[in-house]
Amino acid sequence: MKLASFALNVSDFILGTARMKPEEVGAYIRLLCEQWDKGALPNDPQALQLITGFENTATVMAKFKVGEDGLLRNQRLEQEREKRAPKNKIDASLPVEEREKAFYESLVPHVTEFGAKIVRPFYDYWREKSHSGKKMRFELEKTWELRLRLLKWQGNNDWSANKTPSQPQQINAPDKRLL
Fold first, then answer.
1. Cβ contacts of residue 122 below 8 Å, gap of 6+?
2. Pairwise CA distance, residues 138 & 151, whole Å
3. 178, 172 in Cβ contact below 8 A?
4. Sign of torsion over alpha carbons 5, 8, 14, 16
5. 3-state SS class at 147
6. What percent of the chain has pLDDT over 70?
7. Which of 9, 38, 102, 108 has its CA 20 to 30 A from that of 75?
8. What are 113-170's pLDDT values in tens digits?
């Protein structure tokens, strides 16, 4: 289901655009609307100029970051999309192949924040099917909040990346022996 509108926090918007010229504010709104509708913006100045109607300034473009997929996104808008998205996006009555595709699509907005090196293995792990082949691993969980799961996955990945297997970890026991 595509969300037709997004909430605009007026005080944050006024504060965030206070140093923009009126035409920059208009361009910023047009780009936010395009991102909301399409999911991301092309990282192409000519394509962006077609959307806004004029050459975009560094002030406007500073509001958008390039993701690992090469597309531009405003992080605050993506957080709003996540908040507004239905909590249970995937209809359990659909065939498992369609639910798997829906699960994949639910991860796309998170690629900008977490990167493909985190999101892809996360997807591969959680889409594993049960023995019967009727449910995916994530569907078997009692609770599921996608962003929190990704944060935990990222933390686990950061921890394992910083471990050095060649150095054994020593733990002091209470009696001063090394374990």
1. 107, 149, 150, 153
2. 15
3. yes
4. negative
5. helix
6. 84
7. 102
8. 899 999 999 999 999 999 999 999 999 988 888 988 999 999 888 765 665 554 544 5
Contacts of 40 (CB under 8 A, 6+ apart): 67, 69, 71, 72, 73, 112
Q: Residue 35, exposed/middle/buried by CB under 10 A (0-12, 13-18, 19+)?
A: buried
Collapsed DSSP state (helix, strand, coil) of residue 164: coil
**Beta carbons within 10 angstroms of residue 38's beta carbon:** 11
d(CA 169, CA 9): 49
- Exposure string over 104-142, b if 16+ CB within 10 A, otherwise e: eebbebbbbbbeeebbeebbeebbeeeeeeeebebbeee
The CA distance from 153 to 103, in Å, is 16
> What's the distance, CA 53 to chain centroid?
28
Return the C-alpha torsion angle 152, 64, 87, 150, nearest 10: -10
The single-letter DSSP state of residue 9 is: -
At 148, which amino acid appears? Answer: L
